[in-house]
């Protein structure tokens, strides 16, 4: 297949509801070809075109690359956004993931409704991605690699070069006498992708010349498989909703076969916008959580997420912040009392809204947390009730109970924050 700009026209025109194209332009070969090709058919497309260059600040030549990109965009009469980001990896994060995350995060504000972001991923990139995912033990969703088009920010993200090889793009660039930037980090084989690109794939291609094309078809098949498993997972999720809409019923999960149970768990965790636990951790869910006693509260934690069980409900949540329930605060009512790790700010106005008004001159206000044995006499009731029983009756989750502020005045419990006033 020979790559030509006109070959993109039908694909670009098929994008529905798009009124602006934004090309992610690094200055490298792939994005240079994409930007030039789309610019050359702008009359047929009749859609405004802009470019965006992300300055990662990781290379000494980065400022020169900015100038190169500006000059090329000027030649094409295309406006170019220059986005500067901090792409340094956090502790435990790979440099590749950090740069990719920073890049896409900086592009999000530019992708409004009706805007389509184009990136220059090609067939060889797709083959590399599939191999990387395979070596990481990914399932169908991971092996589907990169989709041709997907939602992004408030618009779309498309990869119109996925059907073309890098050699075809090189031929186009040579025919059009284009200049591009070679980022030296792309040749550093300490990075997994570069190791595959420069060491492994050339060897595989010697034996299987059509490898990239074949792996691209594999990715398409896996994408279809992922779509089907997603449909099944959503059906199972709807049939397994617990007592709350964001939970799953343990009893229903236990009736599913292991493959369907793992499928719906992965789907549900993704819906909750949490990172995915590994296969060993998912196996722990079935072994240690779904078959635990009804009165136990088992949990599983992994980087970025937690699963917790209460009664018949399975909850997927962000990891709870460390909390010392023995800590107490003295509170002067005419001032706010922030408790940052709980995401709370206590105010006298909020206290009044809960049905209790204390004189602001009262200084002996203490905020504590549950230790056990606390009692509260509710308005209209004759007897005091153990806080434990009140929490159980209200269905308050066990891991939330010792994080609820208890307001004491003159040494007596007067408010369980957000729930009850004690007479």
Short structural summary:
By secondary structure, the chain is an alpha+beta fold. The strands form five sheets. A six-stranded mixed β-sheet has the order 3-2-1-4-6-5, sandwiched between helices. Strands 11-14-17-18-19 form a five-stranded antiparallel β-sheet, with no helix packed on it. Strands 7-10-9-8 form a four-stranded antiparallel β-sheet.
Question: Strands, helices and their partners?
Answer:
Blueprint: H1 9-13, E1 20-24, H2 29-40, H3 42-45, E2 49-55, H4 62-76, E3 79-84, H5 95-107, E4 115-118, H6 123-135, H7 140-143, E5 149-152, E6 155-158, H8 166-175, H9 192-207, H10 211-239, E7 248-249, H11 250-255, H12 258-271, H13 279-289, E8 299-302, E9 305-310, E10 313-317, E11 329-331, E12 337-339, E13 344-346, H14 348-353, E14 365-368, E15 375-376, E16 385-386, H15 387-394, H16 398-401, E17 406-409, E18 412-416, E19 420-421
Q: Specify Rg, calculated over alpha carbons.
A: 28 Å
Residues in helix, %? 40-55%
Q: What is the overall silhouette?
A: elongated
Spans of at least 5 consecutive residues with low confidence: none
Structural class: alpha+beta
Distance between the termini: 81 Å
Q: Main beta sheet: strand number and arrangement?
A: 6 strands, mixed
Structural account:
The structure is a single chain. With 423 residues, this protein is of the alpha+beta class. Helix content is 40%, strand content 18%. Strands 3-2-1-4-6-5 form a six-stranded mixed beta sheet, with helices on both faces. Strands 11-14-17-18-19 form a five-stranded antiparallel beta sheet, with no helix packed on it. A four-stranded antiparallel beta sheet has the order 7-10-9-8. A hairpin with a 4-residue loop joins β12 and β13. It is elongated. It starts with 8 loop residues before the first helix and ends with a strand. The mean pLDDT is 89.
């Amino acid at each position: 297949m020979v790559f030509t700009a006109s070959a993109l026209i039908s694909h670009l025109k098929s994008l529905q509801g798009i009124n602006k194209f934004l090309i992610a332009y690094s200055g490298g070969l792939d994005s240079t070809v994409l930007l030039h090709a789309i610019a050359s058919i702008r009359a047929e497309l009749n859609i405004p075109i802009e470019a965006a260059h992300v300055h990662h600040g990781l290379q000494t030549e980065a400022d020169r690359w900015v100038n190169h990109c500006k000059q090329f965009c000027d030649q094409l009469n295309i406006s170019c956004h220059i986005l500067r980001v901090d792409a340094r990896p956090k502790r435990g994060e790979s440099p590749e993931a950090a740069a990719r995350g920073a890049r896409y995060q900086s592009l999000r504000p530019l992708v409004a409704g009706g805007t389509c972001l184009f990136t220059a991923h090609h067939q060889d990139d797709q083959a590399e991605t599939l191999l990387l995912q395979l070596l990481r033990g990914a399932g169908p969703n991971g092996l589907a690699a990169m989709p041709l088009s997907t939602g992004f920010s408030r618009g779309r993200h498309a990869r119109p070069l996925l059907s073309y090889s890098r050699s075809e793009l090189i031929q186009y660039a040579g025919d059009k006498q284009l200049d591009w930037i070679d980022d030296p980090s792309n040749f550093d084989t300490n990075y997994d992708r570069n190791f595959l690109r420069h060491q492994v794939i050339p060897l595989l291609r010697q034996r299987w010349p059509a490898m990239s094309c074949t792996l691209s078809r594999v990715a398409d098949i896996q994408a279809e498989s992922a779509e089907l498993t997603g449909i099944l997972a959503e059906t199972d999720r709807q049939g397994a909703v617990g007592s709350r809409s964001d939970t799953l019923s343990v009893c229903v999960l236990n009736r599913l076969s292991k493959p369907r149970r793992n499928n719906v768990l992965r789907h549900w965790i993704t819906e909750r916008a949490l990172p995915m636990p590994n296969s060993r951790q998912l196996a722990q869910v079935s072994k240690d959580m779904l078959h635990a006693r009804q009165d136990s509260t088992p949990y599983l934690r992994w980087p970025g997420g937690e699963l917790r069980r209460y009664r018949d409900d399975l909850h997927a949540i962000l990891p709870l912040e460390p909390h010392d329930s023995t800590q107490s605060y003295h509170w002067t009512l005419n001032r706010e009392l922030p408790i940052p790790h709980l995401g709370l700010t206590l105010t006298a106005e909020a206290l009044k809204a809960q049905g209790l008004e204390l004189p602001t001159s009262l200084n002996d206000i203490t905020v504590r947390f549950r230790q056990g044995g606390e009692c509260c006499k509710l308005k209209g009731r004759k007897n005091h009730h153990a806080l434990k029983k009140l929490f159980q009756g209200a269905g308050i989750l066990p891991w939330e109970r010792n994080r609820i502020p208890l307001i004491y005045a003159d040494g007596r419990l007067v408010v369980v924050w957000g729930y009850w006033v004690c007479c």
